[in-house]
Write a structure and sequence with these properties.
It is built from 5 helices and 12 strands. The chain is α+β, with helices and mostly antiparallel strands. It has one domain. The longest helix has 13 residues.
């Protein structure tokens, strides 16, 4: 898919100070260690092409505009049948702030007419991402495939370095074992059982 396949492509520059959310591992092990650590983000290596808007030669950092959306995208996904307590206990919810203006292609208006943008046919969306990056964009703003009406971002390369993590919240309280309120809400909404 190429940008010209869409009726139009809106590119917006968002001012610094956008607040976003991300779910990631609290720490990595030898088996799960990513090859990249950028500004506190644990990211898969470039070229792995496992995400919808991944690029072959630059890191991609996926974020959401709301904490609950980040949880749906990372853990409470449509295809999940259950979620283990051990998995959520190893995750943290990050609050992230952008520190410079970012030029972002807005794909949200196209979600209804181009369901491919929310599909698992990543070759199509990755081709689009590559063309958008070639136009000088820092990332893409798009509709969540996991939570209807919610919005997500992907940022690439140097744009990731300009983000600052302002808060880290474990999804399971280490003292009480209680679930973070946004996680409890996502589990309730998705009806995914939490198992040991």
């Amino acid at each position: 898919m190429k940008p010209h396949d869409l009726e139009f492509l809106s590119i917006t520059t968002f001012p610094a100070g956008q607040t976003l959310a991300r779910v990631q591992r609290i720490r990595t092990t030898r088996e799960t260690r990513p090859s990249l650590r950028i500004s506190g983000f644990l990211l898969p290596p470039p070229g792995l092409l496992s995400g919808r808007f991944d690029l072959p030669d630059e890191a991609a950092c996926y974020l959401a505009e709301a904490p609950e959306t980040a949880l749906y995208e990372a853990l409470a996904r449509r295809e999940a049948r259950e979620l283990s307590f051990a998995t959520v206990a190893q995750r943290t919810l990050l609050t992230v702030e952008t520190r410079r203006p970012l030029s972002v292609a807005d794909l949200r208006p196209h979600a209804r007419h181009y369901p491919v943008l929310q599909s698992l046919r990543f070759n199509e969306t990755q081709e689009l991402a590559l063309a958008i990056r070639a136009q000088g964009c820092d990332g893409i703003l798009y509709r969540s495939a996991q939570q209807a009406g919610a919005d997500c971002w992907v940022l690439w390369g140097d744009a990731i370095k300009t983000c600052r993590i302002t808060r880290r919240q474990p999804l399971v309280d280490p003292d009480s074992g209680g679930l973070h309120r946004h996680l409890a809400s996502a589990l309730r909404g998705s009806r995914i059982p939490l198992c040991p």
